[in-house]
Structures are given as structure tokens and as C-alpha cells.
Fold each of these.
Amino acid sequence: MSTFRLINALKRQPVDRTPVWFMRQAGRYLPEYRALREKMGGFLAMCKTPEVACEITLQPLARFAVDAAIIFSDILTIPDAMGLGLHFATNEGPQFDNPVRDKKAVDRLPIPDPENDLGYVMEAIRLVSRHNQQVPVIGFCGSPWTVATYMVEGKSSRDFSVIKKMLYNEPAILLALLGKLMQASCLYLQAQIQAGAKAVMIFDTWGGVLTGPAYQQFSLHFMQEIVTFLKKSAPEIPVILFTKQGGQWLENIAQTGCDAIGIDWTQNIKDARKRVGHQVALQGNLDPSILLASPATIKAEVKTILADFGVGCGHVFNCGHGITPDVPPENVQAAIEAVQEGYIV
Ligand code: CP3
């Protein structure tokens, strides 16, 4: 048994109450985050300054009784370290100077050495681990497929036409890129664990835009390889896989050997538990838009999810995707209180 509620729930061991944390719990909905961002002059500069990344990671802990601290960073640190030239233009999302479009570009990509090339992330994790012993630090990376969408498209996309064209016309090039990202992600998560991360999560935000067979071959397969690697190198560390819109593939995701599956709100958690609850813990699944409603509505919706999951082990409360910038912090507090109360009151 761990002393941490989150870790016990991820391992489907008994807990005194359902643990709760939020994707994007450190971010733009917090005025103290926005103030620091103004001072630092940009998101990437904050990620790359360990003292600042540590401070932002801890900001939600100063306000709320959340059960985890997700390290303040981004899934695009790996392609940045590979030399793609990453920028975050204000309100425009990420952009790469050198998108990856052909075999030559894939062949040229180095596999970053975590401590040398991404040392700022490990240093931030070490600082957070030193400054807080209350809750575990969650390390993370993007899924190879999700990170590749940004590298190939060069920016956020609506229809993923460039990478899908590559997938169907030149699959070998895409598979080579995904293989490199998989290798880099294994080393990156291993280093985060060595630096103090007590659980890790793989964000597959865009796996759900693929067909079933393409999801298996181009997304899940590479996440499976990462899980297998981590289960050998750090077997005690829980691994959470989150494929947004991946509800139809829960059985396949559970078979990777991951400890927990993140589910979005399009899936009923009761059904999800029936399908895979004997194999994995479930993390989710409030629609983050509900955090824009009144505290009374938020509490009712939280309690519905807790009741749908029902009694027993293996639930971590979260939203089904990140907190959006327009959410009032007091509404996050209302959701946390509802989780703390539980559904039988
Ligand atoms: O959850 C946390 O609080 C930890 C930090 C975290 C960030 N990004 C900080 C961030 C995590 C876990 C991520 C993951 C991430 N990054 C994903 C996967 C999860 C998801 O949200 O779907 C993706 C797809 C990215 C890539 C990314 N980073 C995009 C598309 C954008 C711009 C759009 C947006 O949502 O802001 C970012 C920027 C980003 N990452 C911000 C933060 C706090 C906003 C930066 C700012 O403007 O201050």
C-alpha cells in the first residue's frame, strides 16, 4: 500500500475516499498563473525554467485539496528537443518551424537524451518532489501518434489531412516517425520516474480521430510498447493511458497492461467499469464544460459520476479533458467538495 490515495486508487487498492485531480489544473483559469505568464513572457519560457514550472505545478495545491500534482510542462517538449523549432504564438496554439513531411526529415531526427536535452523537466520534478510531500507528482508525455500530428501538420489541426495522407500513402515513413517518438517517450518517462514522478500518464488526445484498425496500428501499438518498457523498468509506477474519444476501444486499451484508463464524458463510467473494471482503474469523466455551470449543478453532476462508478476500488475523479481558461476557480472547488463528500450523504 502506498501512503498516497491516488496511487492506491490507480492500483485498485482500497482508499478512504475517491482521489481527485484535474487535467490542466495548473493553467490559464488561475489568475496567479496568468500573472506569472505575463511576467515570464510566454508559455515555453515557463516550462523551461524549473523554478517557475515548480511554482506553477504547486499553484493549484495552494488553493485546492487535489490528490496529485501534474508536472507543469507540455507534450511537445520532445519534438522541441528534436530540433523542430517550437513556438506558442498568443492564442494560436503551437507551431513548428520545421514540420516533418518526408523520410529524410524523419531520418534526421535525434532521440533526445532526457537529462541533457530535457533536463529542465526532470529538474522541475525534483523541485516539486522536494517542496511537496503531500501528494504524488504525475509525469507525462503525449502518445507518439498525438505528438506526430503536431510534428507533421506543423500546428493544431481540424481534419488531420496532412498526417492522414501520410498514413495512407506512405505508412512506412509515419511508422518510422512513431517508432522514434516511442523510443524517446520511453526514455523520457523513465527519466521522469527517476526524478521523482510517482505515476505517469500518456495523453492520446487525437487517437479518437482514427479508424479502429488505424488506431490499433498507429496509436495503441506504440503506447503498448511504452507500457511494456515501463513495466520492466519501473513496475511499481502506475501508468494511465488516455485516448480522448477512445471509448469504443476500452478492452483493447486495457489489454496493454496499463494500470488505469482515462475516459472522456462520451462514455458512461458505469458501462466502462462493467467492460474493463476487473482489469484497470478508471480516471474521469466529468465534461469540463460542466465546470461553467452553477456550483449546485456541478455537485449534482459529480455525484452522478461517483454513483455511476459505485462502491469499490479503482476510481480517480477527473474531467474527461482539460479545464478550460474560462472556468471560475471556485467552481473547481465545488467539484472537489462534492468528491470529498462522496455520493452517499
Ligand atoms: O495538466 C496540467 O496542468 C499540466 C500541464 C499540461 C499542459 N499541456 C500545459 C499547457 C499538460 C498535461 C499538457 C498536455 C498537452 N499539451 C496536450 C494533451 C492534453 C490535452 O489537453 O489535450 C496537448 C494536445 C498539448 C499541446 C498544446 N499545448 C496545445 C494544443 C496548446 C495550445 C492550446 C491550449 O490548450 O492552450 C498548448 C499550450 C498549453 N499547454 C498551455 C498550458 C497551460 C496554455 C499555455 C498558455 O497560453 O499559457
Note: Residues 5-340 form a domain with the TIM Barrel fold (CATH 3.20.20.210).
Amino acid sequence: MRSWSSPEVPSLDALGLGRGPALTIHDSASKGAVTSDPEGAARLYVCGITPYDATHLGHASTYLAFDLLQRVWLDRGLDVTYTQNVTDVDDPLLERATATGIDWVELAERETQLFRDDMTALRVLAPAAYVGAVESIDLVVDLIDTLEAAGAVYRVDDDLYFDVHADAAFGTVSGFDEQTMLQIFPERGGDPDRPGKKHPLDCLLWLAERPGEPSWETRLGRGRPGWHIECAAIALHHLGTAFDVQGGGSDLVFPHHEMSASEATVATHEPFARAYVHAGMVGYDGEKMSKSKGNLVLVSKLRAEGRDPMAIRLALLAHHYRSDWEWFGGEIDGAEARLAAWRTAVARPTGPSGQDLVAAVRAAMADDLDAPAALAAVDAWAAGSGDDAEAGATARTAIDALLGVLL
Ligand code: 5CA
Ligand code: ZN
């Protein structure tokens, strides 16, 4: 499907500032920092929205984390191939469509377009391949065929399940023990108690046609894809195996990223991703912000209230991507004040060394995307004085290139 338009990312190298340091990033699977510095090109997959409601600050915060990650890679001189999916057919979308009397296709299209508009306003880098589940059904069917040939698929009634124990490495993405998995699985779309399953954690690959629900005619019979196989199929097709980073919010560690990785590994005998990177959860009113709970702060609403999208971006950047944090509302005023101070600072005829600022922001961002440290470096630069006549121009370009904030 159509992606959105990416903002230009200026090159600091072209300004004579050289290339940035290699990215060090926290990998959930190894539970520690890894260096992600592939030769020449980097490949990224980030799990996209299920489009049944508007983009909230939690979504924006997660997608912003992977925008920052790409900016470090780009500053390093790497070409980036970025794929993101849209779960444009799944239970929550169909349930919302039924509850509101809107056609599910229309609902998905409307909310996907709003997401594109929000991402564009926030200057979030766009995926080159923005891919829906519906348009990927053939890829899913092919991958299920491969899993079947590997002996990893079985039938419950007319539905198909993945035998998670076909993958010797099952469990290594989340590192959760079986008891924890069993507790989380039903909270995130799993069905541990379904009679006929070989193991409670086995996950659905293909849901046979249900009355009143959309389905597609395929060689597996009429039906629709399960959730995890959607991302495995799309990522493998568009990026290949052992791509650099699989990303999403921390609520996707298990079962989603665990299952997708296992399915892909059993099918290809290769690792799925080299690193699994997860953004923290944004809360509101004391709970995780979520469409199902309805405690949403919408990006589109803040924009409609006249908030500068760059201030929204700065408000999100003030939190480290891995921390869980809560939105209270007042931080948008603080972000607007910071934005105004930065705009004033870059317009000064002279200022403290621009090169030193670039080095500080680069070091912060390459160190597990430490945006709060980068913001503090810019604040200090803006509050200081000096005789660098290029400082304003250098700072403006660096803040655009590395933080995505247009001053
Ligand atoms: N379509 C699937 C992924 S394949 C999905 O999880 N969709 S979603 O719309 O529920 O979430 C989209 C992305 O936003 C996911 O990466 C999810 O982890 C992230 N996300 C959802 N809620 C929050 C939140 N409150 N804070 C931070 N990130 C969140
Ligand atoms: Zn996904």
C-alpha cells in the first residue's frame, strides 16, 4: 500500500562533519547492548498499526524510536531499507467495525490515512515498503506451506496451528519462562485453552472462514491469516533473513515477536533478525494508553488544537525510548518553550561551537538512542555563548538530521 512521504535527512558528512559513530542498541533477546553497524546497508522491520482507531501518543513514541534509530544509521553513512506492515485484517479491527457499523475496509483505510498524516506531521521517516496483511495473503500462504513441509503445522478443526516446539530456539526472543508465557499469551490474542491443540502456546497460522467475517480463497481453504505469520511473511519477503532490527513496542516481545521469529526460523533455518528492539509503553490516567481501554491522547487532536508537531515530537523525545512513562498533558507546554528557545538560539549570529554540539548529540544518540541526553546537550548549547559564526547553521542541520526536529 501507499507509504507516506519521508522528510529529507540532511547529511552532516556533506557539511564536512564526517560520519557518526556506530549504533549501540539494547537487544531484548540478548538482554544487553549490541553494536548494529552492518556493512553498507541496514535492514529494519517495525510492526505497524492495527488500524481501528486513531494514532495515539504511544504509537507515535514507538515509531519515533525507530525513526531515531534510522537517523543514527544514516549519519553513519548506511543505506537503510525499512519495511512496516499494517494489520488491516484482524479480530480487533473486525470487532470495532461491527460495533460501530462501519465497513471494516473503510475503517482500516480511514485510520491508516490518519496515521500517515500524523507520521508526516511529526516528520517520522517513512518505510519504503508499507505493506498490508490483505495484500500479503499469498506470501502468508507460501510461508505456511513451507512450515507444513517442515512438519511444524497441524490442524484444529479447519484452522491451522504452528507447533512452537518445532523451533529449538523458541523462547529466546523474550527470554520468558513458560509460566510467564502462559500468563501473557491469552492477554495478547492467544488461545491456550482451545481443545485439540498439542501445546497451549501453539499459535494460530490460518483461521478458516467464520460466518460474517472476511475470508480469502486459497489452497489452504477459505480463511484469513493469523497475526504472527503476517509479520514473518512480510519481513522475510521484503527484507530477507537475518535482517538487522525487528522493532515494536515492548507489548510485542511476547507472543508476537517470539512467534514470528520462530515461524521464520523453522521455515528458513536462518535467524529472523539480528536484534530485537522494543520501545517502552506510554501510559495515561494510570494505565497503558490503548485503543481497547480508550484512554487515548491522539496526535491528530493535539494537532487540531494548534500544537506545533515539532513540539509534540520534542515532548516525546524528552523520554528515553526504553522507559515506560506517563503522559500528564503539561509537558507539551514545556516542549513548546524548549522549541522556542532553540529557534531563538539557532538564529543568533554567533554561538558556542557547533562541532562540539554535533559530537555531543551524536554520542548521545549512538548510545542506545539517548534522546534525553541529546536534548540536554542542545539546551546547554542554546543557553551558552561563543564566537562560532557557523554555530546556528550547524546546530539547525544537526538537530534536523539526528533528532528530526525542524527549527
Ligand atoms: N499491528 C500490530 C503489530 S503487527 C499492533 O500491535 N498494532 S497496534 O496498533 O496495537 O500497535 C502499533 C505499535 O504501537 C506497536 O509497535 C505497539 O507495540 C505500539 N504501541 C501500542 N500501544 C502503545 C503504548 N501505549 N505505548 C507505546 N507503544 C505502543
Ligand atoms: Zn507485527
Note: The longest strand covers residues 79-86.
